[in-house]
């Protein structure tokens, strides 16, 4: 079952973040992930959630997404994202298509 990482980012240090954004796609691909939504400014339709930028990554499974998040080689990049943004990340599983 497909899984999705949803990131809500507020960028504080653009130059640092741009390096992260340039390099991280190789690690996403390494774990068979792909961008579904890439850093767009969302339009809030309901509620009081105020995300700044949203990224949605699709992986073939929850295990692939978790492998991406725990990849030792990607940890310095995640540290760079943490130091250049305020970010929130959630992992959700998709649902099976209706028959």
Automatic annotation (TrEMBL):
Lineage: Bacteria, Pseudomonadati, Pseudomonadota, Gammaproteobacteria, Cellvibrionales
UniProt xrefs under SUPFAM superfamilies: Dimeric alpha+beta barrel
PANTHER family: BLR0684 PROTEIN (PTHR41521:SF4), PTHR41521
Record domain DUF1330: where: 2-95
Superkingdom, natural source: Bacteria
Protein name in UniProt: DUF1330 domain-containing protein
TM spans (from-to): none
């Amino acid at each position: 079952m497909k899984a999705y990482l949803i990131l809500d980012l507020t960028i504080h240090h653009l130059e640092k973040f741009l390096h992260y954004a340039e390099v991280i796609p190789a690690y996403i691909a390494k774990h068979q992930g792909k961008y579904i939504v890439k850093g767009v400014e969302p339009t809030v339709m309901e509620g009081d959630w105020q995300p700044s930028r949203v990224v949605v990554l699709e992986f073939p499974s929850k295990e692939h997404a978790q492998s991406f998040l725990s990849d030792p080689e990607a940890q310095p990049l995640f540290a760079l994202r943490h130091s250049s943004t305020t970010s929130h990340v959630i992992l959700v599983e998709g649902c099976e298509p209706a028959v």
